[in-house]
Amino acid sequence: MFQTARLDSALPKAEAYRDLLSQAEGLFHGETDAIANAANLSALIFHGLPDLNWAGFYLLRGERELVLGPFQGKPACIRIPLGRGVCGTAAERRQSVLVEDVHAFPGHIACDAASRSELVVPLLQDGKVLGVLDLDSPLPGRFDAEDQAGIEALAALWVKSSA
Which residue numbers delimit the GAF domain (predicted)? Predict the structure, then answer.
């Protein structure tokens, strides 16, 4: 049985994310199914990081639409067009988007009114967008550059492990 560990708030963030990455490597060991790995990574992030109210995947379907994938949290928006909201913007730009206050983000899509900040990382394989990894928090300014780097590393591991 796999044991997850909540990140210790006394650890420096970079070290805490290394621990989370190590746990994800253990979860993915010997498994290449993208959906199974997305489900486990969503749960690992949601239960491993403090102050989240949503963590999960939106996967690209067709050329212009993200569709809800595995997640942890309240029910979510099912379809997001590329270029719309934080998720669609990150996918279209092919770069992470960190939003300190979602109410100040033009075109923000409010799936959960409690969300105040958001971090979205695109899932890229050979330059192609596979989807995004999305984290929401009820706290304004919850995410910073260290969170972005940590989640980008987890997203890259998911892409590498989910052939």
Answer: 33-162
